[in-house]
Amino acid sequence: MKKALIGVIISILTIAVIFRLTETNVTWQVIFQANLFFLSIAFLLHVFFWFFWAIRLKSLADSLGQPISLGYALEVSIASTFLAAITPSSAGGEPLRIKMLHDAGVSVGSATAVVLAERLLDAIFFIAALPVFLLLTGFSTKLGIEIGLLFALCLFGFIIFLYLLLKRPERLDSFTSWLVRFIARFSRERAEKAGEKIRAELMRFREALISLAKNSYRKIASIMVITSCIWFSEFLVPSAILAAFGCDPELLLSLTSQLILVIISLVPLTPGASGIAEVGMSYLYSKFVPQHIIGVLTGVWRFITYFLNLIVGFVVNVKLLKSKYIDQKY
């Protein structure tokens, strides 16, 4: 909860500074005069973000022969957004998704492969979409290319590392032996017990990744379409907010800005990229959005895509903890 509070405080303070710097004349009356239809669409788009994420999670688990229900996949997706919102680079969401998939009967190795596949699919989408939108709009091309190239190099390096690690099973054994020796520094007994389990899960992880890679082109294409739906749902939120306040939605420019912004937000500095996201948003959108609307746009966008994750994610986590530890006990 401390990290959540830090993220919220940083976000609110940054938005307040943006309001001040842009000399935004905002009153509750102005906010209440917003078009409720388009505001509802903005909220609904974020709900679609959760829903499409759940569909992809279910599809990946199903493709490994370890099916989960769509309802449970939705709970996993929403619950993980809470931890993602309070950790740098949204890294906290992955361990929770692995844990919840394991609770549903998926092996740790397979669950890890599913979550890693999610990250790789997202990265491939960002790398493929960013140059297309930069070419279509010519917007912030220099910044976009620099960020895109750096991200692509990191992705390429990680894929090479993963390929070398998984190409030969003996490399996994070497990695396991090193890990066991490291654990043995603290507890030899625990290291011996953990060794075989770690080795078995790493082999399952390897087999699961190979199985995912061997999916039919049609299956892989369908999962990439779902990935596109996930991110376009989220990236269209600012355009809906702009429409709600009577501004041009600036679809192409907004989508390009969101692609740049989501990569910038991966920098592991603050919980949920608080501060980074708001400053990046105001900087990019100030190039094509009226100055007086920047503060309102940033505040409402951040509420929908960040604070809503904290609120709904917290509620879902409490519900899951209650059903697992309290209801089962009594």
Summarize the structure.
The chain is mainly α. It has helices spanning 2-21, 28-32, 36-63, 70-85, 93-103, 108-137, 141-167, 169-184, 188-213, 217-235, 237-244, 251-264, 276-285, 294-326. The protein is globular.
What would you note in describing this structure?
There is one protein chain. The mean pLDDT is 80. This protein has helices spanning 2-21, 28-32, 36-63, 70-85, 93-103, 108-137, 141-167, 169-184, 188-213, 217-235, 237-244, 251-264, 276-285, 294-326. The longest helix has 33 residues, at 294-326. The protein has one domain (2-326). The chain is globular. It is an all-alpha fold and 330 residues long.
Q: Uncertain regions: pLDDT < 50 for 5+ in a row?
A: none
| Count of discrete structural domains | 1
Alpha plus pi helix count? 14
Largest sheet: none
* Shape type: globular
> Could you spell the SSE succession in H and E letters?
HHHHHHHHHHHHHH
Q: Count every beta strand, where a strand is a DSSP E run of 2 or more residues.
A: 0
Which value, in Å, is the CA radius of gyration?
A: 21 Å
Helix % is over 70%
Strand portion, in percent? Answer: under 5%
- Please give the alpha-carbon distance between the first and last residues: 27 Å
Q: Averaging pLDDT over every residue, what do you get? A: 80
Question: What structural class do you assign from the helix and strand content?
Answer: mainly alpha
What layout of secondary structure does this protein have?
Elements: H1 2-21, H2 28-32, H3 36-63, H4 70-85, H5 93-103, H6 108-137, H7 141-167, H8 169-184, H9 188-213, H10 217-235, H11 237-244, H12 251-264, H13 276-285, H14 294-326
Helix pairs in contact: 1-13, 1-14, 3-4, 3-6, 3-10, 3-11, 4-5, 4-14, 5-6, 6-7, 6-9, 6-12, 8-9, 11-14, 12-13, 13-14
InterPro entries: L-PG_synthase/AglD
Main location: membrane
Transmembrane segments: 30-55, 67-86, 123-141, 147-166, 220-245, 251-272, 293-316
